[in-house]
Amino acid sequence: QYAHQRLVIHRDIKCGNVLVTQDGVPKLLDFGIAKLLNPDLDPEQQAITMERVMTPESASPEQLSGEPITVAADVYALGVVLYRLLAGRTPYGDLPASEAALIEAVCERVPELPSAVARRQHDTGVGPIPADVDLIVMKALRKEPDRRYGSAAQLADDVRRYLEGRPILAAPDTLGYRARKFVTRNRWAVAGAAAVVVTLCAGVAATSWQARVASQQRARAEREFNAVRTLANAVLGELHDAVTKLPGSVAAREVLLRRATDYLDTLSADAAADVDLRRELARGYRRLAQVQGFQGLANLGDTDAARRSLERAASLLQPIAEGGGATARDRIELADIWVQLGKFDRRGHSPTEQYDRARALLDALPAANRSTADALRVEQGLWYGIANDHARAKNYAAARDAYVNEVRAADAVFHLSPDDMDASRNLSIGYKQLGAVLELLGRPDEAIDRYQRAMALDRARTEREPARATWRLDLSFAIGSMGGALMAKDDLAGALEQYRQAVDLRRAVVAEDPNDDFAQTSLARGYARLAVIAGRMKDAPAAIDWDAKRLEVLRGRAAAHLDRDRAWADYAAAAAEAIGRSVDLLEKGRMTRGARRAAASRVRAMVEQFQALDARRPPSHAAGGAAPEREQIRRLQARLARLPPG
Questions:
Q1: What is the extent of the structural domain holding 555?
Q2: Is residue 231 very low, low, confident or very high in pLDDT (cuts 50, 70, 90)?
Q3: pTM of the complete model beyond 0.70
Q4: According to the model, what pLDDT value does residue 401 have?
Q5: Residues 308 and 201 grouped into a single domain
Q6: Residue 362 falls within a domain, yes or no?
Q7: Pick from 6, 170, 310, 532: most CB atoms within 10 A?
Q8: Burial of 324 from C-beta contacts in 10 A (0-12 / 13-18 / 19+)
Q9: Same domain? 162 vs 201
Q10: Is residue 343 part of a domain?
């Protein structure tokens, strides 16, 4: 900067021309090709007098192309030095030998971010490079001189801003960026320190001035507080809802929701008495729980995390909903949290404590509020949970009555909002659940009628939003349910065709989003039903093939989460069932010698893959999990070994 202030351009700044003294003071050497700028000449006239003398590795695009040379060339060279210090190499790697290739590289190619290079080169001597540092370096290396820093002093000032935790000039001045910088700084400590300095310097005479500064600081803190709050709620609301419609978005949704909830959590520590903020945070945790592990929705399969998020939401909202200033919405939302927690509670077969709490909150609502769409949705979810508990206890008549109530509530919501896609989905789910229990009661024709109603709703949603994975999965469940009813009527060919269609839909969703745990388990169930149908049709090779595909899906899921007992338990139970069915078919089924040999080889592979993954489980999880299935598979392996060759 000293040289630039005296109208001198160095033109050859590089690592070899920078000497650092024992005291850590950098010295710039070798002004042998420096140039004195004439302030009375414009840049075009100055360029006429400047021959192209330079070191190629640090030369700016304008030096190489013979364009006017200004202080921006030295700023570019400083960027090259900074890049080399961070990444351990020049911005363009090994420089080309020819002049034309060199000019093309420097003038046309965009350098890779230094952080990306440093990650690959572990011997650079620096830790992870923050995004702000990338932005500073890349601004200094802009191809266009007028888009670089205007001077070395500006470059130094931006580096200083980064070191002090302040927003840098190289970064876009967006609300999100400024909010992140804000939450990383100790704003209260800075305000307090400023007040102390003012007091020491100005004394009693500055009291009014201090009050004005403190007021400005409070106003600024409140503005930034509200800005972060607004941003977090935008992420939880409109941004998340937009991303939800995109294929393969489960992992992205989890990141969005977690970050936004973290922001609100941080703010809540500064505003413990802010009831509205606690409401917002409770809603954030409810949404986070959905993407972590809600059955029936695209999720990551982490049910323990989902339960914890719901419990956190309940702890935030319960004091508000049970307090004197509670609104109907507070009570409805808390009731919904209890309903969702009840679905995670599998301690018994009767309605759980959480369902009783939800019922009490709904019953206490005024009649006008009980008939709203929000309250009816919670009531539908409550009946859904109660019906499922009855079905698990094999009390199918009570389950049917509860499902009828679920459909009644869902139908009321749908008629209030016929264009509401979620209302359509909830009614469809009710029809499917009612159809399933009617099948169990031996009434397949009534079940088929409910499945057809569900299929019409699901197909209409899929046609409106064909990219929405949830709608396609819903349609696959309606088609699969129809296949199950046809099986009950011994129409195996019809059932096979329905399940093939259902599996095709599920397979496409899994291909789009491998992180969607719900889609994976749904695909595995579809393969299992195809295996059963093929077995009943005496097609042993096909049955074994479908079972192998089922285990392939569940094995991949378990391998990705070896510490999750639920994923392993699902795989172990499926492996024992599939291998058992396959061994039975090999022992009793009729097939050609070649088909039998191929099928036996596939079943052996199922056994070996189970045992290999079982050996990889962490010691803390391996001891207790799937012990009965492990022993059952050992016995099946012995039966498999006794089969005659070929």
A1: 542-646
A2: very low
A3: no
A4: 97
A5: yes
A6: no
A7: 310
A8: exposed
A9: no
A10: no
